[in-house]
Amino acid sequence: MTHIQRFNRIAHSELSEQGPSKSQRKRESHALQDLGEELVNLAKDALARVPMPENLEQAVRECRKITAHEGRRRQLQYVGKQMRSLHESEVEAIRRALDAIKGVSKAETARLHSLERWRERLLARDEALTELLAQHPQADAQQLRTLIRNARREQAAQKPPKAFRELFQALKDLLVNSPASPETSEDADSHLPEFPTREED
């Protein structure tokens, strides 16, 4: 379930003519607190891609520097307070950015696993190279044969895996970074939302 779906489930539960119940407000507060903690735990490059106002960004970055347990706990509470002060559209932008980042992360993990499986198949049996070349005729067959042969020798002699790593990079260039490949990392940022302009009351 995405952040947006989870938040919508909370926002639309227990609604009445009198407005949200006390328990609903409490859950929404906890959800925002958790969202703030997720920002704190993001990788540095991912955090830079999340749209947020300056005061929240400063609170998050300060929290990331704190190592003492109690000091970090207090700063996390402050981050949560900043989250609760945001306009709904600002929270929505943060949620969409996080969902996009997670989607990119999952896709990248899947691509890496696919490359690792290809490498293992190529080292395990000669027929795998024939299959790869049939699917990707633009591949440099001689380069791949050389890397496979050298990687097998490395493994047999228990040498440092230089060719083993070079084979992975060659597969990445062929299957991921190739201009003809439908899976390019450049598409990742295109799905991130723009930070909305907050209207003055």
From TrEMBL:
Entry's Gene Ontology cellular component terms: cytosol
Ranges where the record places region Disordered: 1-30, 177-201
GO biological process, one term: assembly of large subunit precursor of preribosome
Residue ranges, compositional bias (Basic and acidic residues): 188-201
GO molecular function: ribosome binding; rRNA binding
Superkingdom of source: Bacteria
Swiss-Prot/TrEMBL keywords: Cytoplasm, Ribosome biogenesis, RNA-binding, rRNA-binding
Claim: GTP-binding is one of the keywords in the record: no
Entry's localization field: Cytoplasm
Chief subcellular location: cytoplasm
A family per Pfam: DarP
HAMAP family given in the database record: DarP (MF_00765)
Stated family: Belongs to the DarP family.
Function summary: Member of a network of 50S ribosomal subunit biogenesis factors which assembles along the 30S-50S interface, preventing incorrect 23S rRNA structures from forming. Promotes peptidyl transferase center (PTC) maturation.
Descriptive protein name: Dual-action ribosomal maturation protein DarP
Name of the encoding gene: darP
